[in-house]
Amino acid sequence: MTNFEVINNIIMANKTSWIKVNTDSDFSIYNIPFGIYTDANVKHHACSAIGDQIIDLYELCHHGYLGNFSFDNLVFKESTLNDFIALGKEITNAVRNRIIELFTEGNTELQSNEAHRKDILKAQTSVKMLMPIRVGDYTDFYSSIDHATNIGKMIRDPENALMPNWKHIPVGYHGRASSVCVSGHSFHRPKGQQKPADAPIPVFGPCKLLDFELETAFVIGRRTEMGESVSTAKADEYIFGMLLFNDWSARDIQTWEYVPLGPFLSKNFASTVSPWIVTLEALEPFRTKGYIQEPKVLPYLEYSGDKNLDIKLEMYIQPENSEATRVCTSNYKYMYWTMEQQLAHHTVNGCNINVGDLMGSGTISGPDPSEFGSMMELSWKGTKPIKLNDGSERKFINDNDTVTIKGWCEKDGIRVGFGECKATVLPSN
Ligand code: CA
User: Hey, which residues does 288 pair with through a beta bridge?
Assistant: First the structure.
């Protein structure tokens, strides 16, 4: 039986947990993601989530519930998941499966031990989630055909929006790892050079066209040596899991600086990730058909099977002291290039990858205008303001706005979600 069939069989089994899980919870028994938390007593421990609880994996191991594993439980006491992930999927999947077993309705091993439960389970609202991985390298792709077409129409040629390379190469660039932050952070509006169309020379000041980019990212779970390449067929062995990702972008800085080498200071001031890494195995039941790629891709980019994913996505803007407005919905299934193709392309020249490397999808836009994944597209370069629930309007992001991505998969009443990816923009300092 393949991994996919095993997981689908688990779904068919219609599991429930002895922990209460609401039907709209992202953290069903089918999810069991990984993260790092802190609270008044714990500096940093690895954890998972079920319902509205977190599961402290150090305590779970310490009390003997992961007794069949030979690794040192100190791996769950580290400040990131990198060393746990580096143990390999054979171990990380077995740990996840063991957690699923322990929390499934009918299993009383932990349920019947109140003292252990008190050490292991905590309310999600009582802990603070930390950055789950140490990101060594961060790459961002540009793989949504609707996004690339919209941007091409706006800044290039409405009749010939896609660059000639776009359907042959999963276009990407190397981003900046130092400013990738976990959900819940805030950052100051970036400053930089801009060149207004009517000005003869560039000006310097706070960015006026600050934008979000609705993305997901995948986390590398297995390293390669320089010179090695990962095929599309083997790519899933190297992808540990996914999270939500906001690639904050300063459009006015970007427009002036990007020729000829691509984005630089318009992107590297902040990026936001959601705190939970949802494993590729948890996402497997939600695989769906990818785009029919025409013209045919080169052989190293060919792949077989359903390699896209049905992940529902939403973006919200919340002004200070006001309610949040959903400004768009989208879906990961609109991606033209799959993660497997992105990774095969990234390594085809022998570029090595490391555990914890982060690979952004690129802005995920859908075909309908309500599915555009950036303000640049939603407001069509500022020409069509978006109305928020409090009556105010946005062309781009204002100071003190909080921007949140939500994402989840749902099929046959089973939900596997990511939680939130949220950040607040402070005035320029
Ligand atoms: Ca991007």
Answer: 308
Inter-CA distances, 87 with 226, 276, 381, Å:
20, 18, 46
Determine the Cα–Cα distance for residues 30 and 285; give it in Å rounded to an integer. 10
Q: How far is the CA of 428 from the centre of ligand 1 (A)?
A: 22
Among residues 65, 66, 108, the alpha carbon closest in space to that of 87 is found at: 66
**Which residues, other chains included, contact 346 with Cβ-Cβ below 8 Å and sequence gap of 6+?**
139, 172, 230, 353, 359
| Structural domains of the chain, with CATH | 3-130 (2.30.30.230), 138-426 (3.90.850.10)
The CA-atom distances, in angstroms, between 65 and each of 45, 94, 129, 173, 257 are: 16, 13, 23, 43, 54
Residue 147 annotated to the active site: yes
Give residue 363 CA to ligand 1 midpoint distance, Å.
Answer: 5
Q: How far is the CA of 152 from the centre of ligand 1 (A)?
A: 14
426: Cβ–Cβ under 8 A, 6 or more apart, which residues?
186, 187, 188, 189, 399, 400
Query: DSSP letter at 234?
Result: T
Residues of the chain with pLDDT under 50: 1
Kindly report, residue by residue over 307-336, the tens digit of the pLDDT.
999 999 999 999 999 999 999 999 999 999
Q: What is the pLDDT of residue 6?
A: 54
**Is the pTM above the cut of 0.90?**
yes
How many other C-beta atoms can be found within 10 angstroms of the C-beta atom of residue 105? Answer: 12
Tokens encoding 121: 């389970």
Three-state secondary structure of 151-163? HHHHHCCCCCCCC
CA distances from 218 to 141, 236, 301, 334 (A): 11, 11, 18, 16
DSSP code, position 341: H
